[in-house]
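Justification of computing resources. Each target in the renewal requires a structure prediction run like the one illustrated here; the chain below, 199 residues long, is used simply to show the kind of job we budget for.
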Amino acid sequence: MNTEKVTARRLTAEEIAGLGLQDSIFVSAGVDGLPLDCYAPAFLTAPGKDFEGGSFVARTVFGEEVHVLPENAEEGGIWIADKAGEAIEVLQSAGVLLNLALFVPNGNKESLGALYSAARDAFGAGVVQRWSEEVAAVPDVKVDLYEEPARARKGTSSQNRDRRAMDIYPTRVRFLEPSEGWKFVVEPHKEIVDDTPTI
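Resulting structure tokens:
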């Protein structure tokens, strides 16, 4: 396990309430539910002042969500870097896992194999691995993608519709997420024709 010593101090609930989303903190480390005897770099999921009931929620740089009661002596608490503090062990990153969705025009087994070989040559044969692979033909069809309020009133027009992206392949829609409170509407792509008469 790769860790480094960081000088930090434990924060009180009042101090945490003054933190924002950009403030770097340290919380008890855990990976896939396995608690570790060290800390992980993290950020609050909402400004500190927005939390009620004394419990704060932080998300580590490794994607784990941690609920913390800072006044509980049995918990690790929330720490911030401070040269006048004490040394704590902080878990370091071993690398970055990329979940890639690759679109290969006119893709076939040979082109995919060449792509995989090039990646292994660039990063090392023991580094680049295919954990799961979905090879699906992409129809040569494009769609328009709109966002609409998730709960629109009956009888209202589509004035609230917002063009989020256009001219994209349907398979890419699966990898996009609508804004909070909105839903996606997918329609066949229509070219915009300008009928304005010219002189």
